From TrEMBL:
Record protein name field: Receptor-like protein kinase HERK 1
Binding-site list for ATP: 524, 658
Protein keywords: ATP-binding, Glycoprotein, Kinase, Membrane, Nucleotide-binding, Receptor, Serine/threonine-protein kinase, Signal, Transferase, Transmembrane, Transmembrane helix
UniProt source species: Carex littledalei
InterPro entries xref list: Kinase-like_dom_sf, Malectin-like_Carb-bd_dom, Prot_kinase_dom, Protein_kinase_ATP_BS, Ser-Thr/Tyr_kinase_cat_dom, Ser/Thr_kinase_AS
Amino acid sequence: MEAFRRTPLLLSLLLSLLSTATATSFIPNISIYIDCGAKDPITLSKDSPPRIFNVDDSYLQSDKNTLSLSNPNNSSSGSLYSTARVSSSSFTYKFNNMDPNTFNVLRLHFLPFSAPSYELSTAKFSVHALNYILLDNFTVADTASPTIKEFFLWTESSDMEVQFIPQSNSIAFVSAIEAFIAPQEMLNSSNPKPIGDPTLSVDLVKQVLETVYRVNMPGPLITPHNDTLWRTWVTDDPYIYSADGSKKTSVSTSLTYVPSQGSSEEIAPPTVYNTARSMNLSEVQFISNPGFNINITWSFSVDSGYHLIRLHFCDIISETNSLDQGLVFTVYIMNYSALTNNLRISDYTTYSQEPFYIDFIAHVMSAQNITVSISMDRTDSKIRNAFLNGLEIFKVNNLTTKKNHPAVILGATIGGVIVIALILSCIVVVSIKKRHQKRTPDVKETHLLWSPMTRGVNSIDNSSKSGGATTIGASPRVDLGLLISLAQIKMATDNFDEKNQIGVGGFGKVYKGVLSNGVKVAVKRASSRSQQGFPEFQTEIEVLSQIRHRHLVSLIGYCDERSEMILVYEYMEKGPLRNYLYGNESPSLSWKQRLEICIEAAKGLHYLHTGYSQTIIHRDVKSTNILLGEGYSAKVSDFGLSKLGASIGETHVSTAVKGTFGYLDPEYFKTQKLTDKSDVYSFGVTLLEVLCARPVIDQSLAREEINLAEWALMWLSQGQLEKIIDPRLVGEINENSLRKFGEIAEKCLQEYGMDRPAIGDVLWNLEYCLQLQETEVRREPYEDSGTSEAHFPAVPFVRRMPSSVVSHETATSGDSRSDITNSNVFSQLISGEGR
Ligand SMILES: *[C@@H]1O[C@H](CO)[C@@H](O)[C@H](O)[C@H]1NC(C)=O
Ligand SMILES: *[C@@H]1O[C@H](CO)[C@@H](O)[C@H](O)[C@H]1NC(C)=O
Ligand SMILES: *[C@@H]1O[C@H](CO)[C@@H](O)[C@H](O)[C@H]1NC(C)=O
Ligand SMILES: *[C@@H]1O[C@H](CO)[C@@H](O)[C@H](O)[C@H]1NC(C)=O
Ligand SMILES: *[C@@H]1O[C@H](CO)[C@@H](O)[C@H](O)[C@H]1NC(C)=O
Ligand SMILES: *[C@@H]1O[C@H](CO)[C@@H](O)[C@H](O)[C@H]1NC(C)=O
Ligand SMILES: *[C@@H]1O[C@H](CO)[C@@H](O)[C@H](O)[C@H]1NC(C)=O
Ligand SMILES: *[C@@H]1O[C@H](CO)[C@@H](O)[C@H](O)[C@H]1NC(C)=O
Ligand SMILES: *[C@@H]1O[C@H](CO)[C@@H](O)[C@H](O)[C@H]1NC(C)=O
Ligand SMILES: *[C@@H]1O[C@H](CO)[C@@H](O)[C@H](O)[C@H]1NC(C)=O
Ligand SMILES: *[C@@H]1O[C@H](CO)[C@@H](O)[C@H](O)[C@H]1NC(C)=O
């Protein structure tokens, strides 16, 4: 079995090496291409890699009543369409060895022709596959060009049967068939956003998706030879309402696909992303009429039912890196604003010209048109434009032949899934262990041949066969697509060489590494005696694989081979913010730099708190979890402790206290009730740390100085915060900026969460603080107080942790041991949790 399966893989890998056209072509490890009715195999040499369509005999279940017909019109001889399999009774193709529990692509080709006594264009028939009805009362009238029907079929078993059923007194025919496993990232991670009805949620798994439109905006036409999955992408001319006010844009520069964010050339090739239709408007139009706006609208006629709408974007419009926020615009689908907010490109991408897509699900009540419009945003965006690169519409079809297939409708929120995942995590541990036992070295070899970002070939296969399959299936958000083999990680880190170690955390050691494709990564390896256990590992994978934002560190992959728990992140060149504050040789940061870092970190947190239907609470905000990259751009890291916030109607989640001492929200500590305001508290402590450049707990100091939050609040209450700021900042900070900053920190540190501002307010105020610093406007000291919220109450003396707990700490200023997550004391705090 293994040998049988490996052969086509190696063959196709060889083919791909020989093909010069596109080196990155998708090579499904299981693929069946047949030229129905043909006497000899046919090679499509223009495909890259070239594909061979075999004769269909060996797949045909009962060939007694079928005919192999040739097109008597020689013009098409030698093509896929010069023959057809025809019958006046049902016939079935059976494909064995398909991958179970995954989406397979099934593509049916039809080109009717006239043969003596058979007129294929009048054939009327149905096609069933597995127990789905793919086509019903189907006729193909177009005799000039082939009709291709494409389906993404959720396949549970390894056998796929495709049945052609003619209507009485008619015939059924087919010209060619393709069946191959869909790239794993294609649909598995789809979490479509509802259009119109916010409760709309369709689990795509166990359904059939029929491709109804696939459009490259504005063009050119992409033929199967040019596409990574042999698809056809048509131009948008037939669908655009009015091309006035729009223009075609294209670039020839290379794009940055980020596989860990779900983008790949298989999702859509560069030819889709390097062209776009955008607004054609001149500055003059805005000068004379600042409110000017238009919609660019496309319209697609569809049947009634559920439809998955996939919009492809790649910002080839903005000047590279010229603007902080990049482009912001509005997307409408069927007259509904498709996203809760506007589409902010920077929320979806990290790099310039990075492709991404967004999925939507819409319920079309009666046969009508799905319209998609893009329009400028004039409030939020610095540049006024809007664009679209590509579009696909799939009809969600769950029509079954037998008894109704139960459509599993889950709350597709990551919330439900994470909660389920956490509950089941113990069971998953067991099943993952089983998986490990079943792995064979052979499969690993083939896995290595794939690029580092490719899919976890082995584990998926085995999990579906092992008894643990259902358990794994219950936790679909553990994205197996991010699996990286231990061998690759060892290679990247020189077998976890000490010289590559860049840190130690509660989780284990962190190494720097370079993957075989040259991408620099940070590798976080759990030590066997790690205090953070498997649930955190899972949470981190689940949360991180769901969210992407330029101010949140992205997860590139993970490895759970043997008893390893390894997380692989994008590498942040300059390391944790704390290293630039105190106790390290690193250069000191200017006040402006520090403010910018705080602003960026607040943006990351803001995204966690509000970017999803459910609030994600970080739970461990601190200066070591804010990482700096090139140019000191900041990203929030370490989601191992993240928790989903309360859902609507509740105000908090109850949970055993976790976090890092000194940053911990006292209200949370007392009540065990976690809210997003707990992060705001920790962020407030971090702000003080940035300002004062000292550890948040420093046992070497006098008693009243030990806790930074307490110490700073005392000085704040006396209006003398400047007395304790980082000496390196003295003379540099504008006094208004400092005062504002103090106010922000103070508000974050309010004893009760409800008195603290939301992180969005904090962000806004920090931006204001930066403005005050930059404009150097002289103001009366209290002139701008309370610009955002009414007034600040007098500083209360917030009750901190009992100092008996504090006094156990051995933290010394500056060294990593002051990170109290690792300390004995902290582990007692959390020991009741049964990690
Ligand atoms: C033969 O093919 C040509 C071009 O494809 C088409 O115009 C013509 O109608 C066909 N003739 C028959 C008999 O199918
Ligand atoms: C079809 O092609 C074959 C060989 O290619 C040729 O012998 C035959 O005459 C052609 N038939 C017609 C109708 O053109
Ligand atoms: C298909 O055609 C048959 C007979 O013409 C009819 O009974 C059946 O309802 C049709 N099905 C659909 C979906 O139109
Ligand atoms: C598609 O490939 C053909 C060669 O097979 C080439 O001539 C054509 O320009 C390509 N089109 C696009 C859009 O890349
Ligand atoms: C863009 O608009 C200008 C005038 O506003 C027009 O001259 C030009 O032809 C338009 N370009 C396209 C591609 O429509
Ligand atoms: C519906 O979409 C089709 C293209 O799919 C278009 O030709 C037609 O004009 C549209 N109809 C309406 C009412 O917008
Ligand atoms: C959207 O609005 C336009 C114009 O207001 C209207 O003609 C069209 O029917 C609407 N479409 C839907 C799907 O409601
Ligand atoms: C664009 O279309 C949306 C949805 O149909 C509509 O609400 C909005 O007013 C339109 N904008 C303009 C400028 O026409
Ligand atoms: C198909 O799915 C829709 C929504 O997901 C559901 O309402 C309907 O009952 C399903 N039908 C069958 C036959 O499963
Ligand atoms: C084929 O590859 C997919 C991932 O692309 C994997 O899930 C599956 O297990 C592989 N099947 C075999 C037989 O190697
Ligand atoms: C895709 O999702 C299904 C069900 O959620 C799961 O069984 C399967 O393992 C997933 N495959 C990958 C590659 O994530």
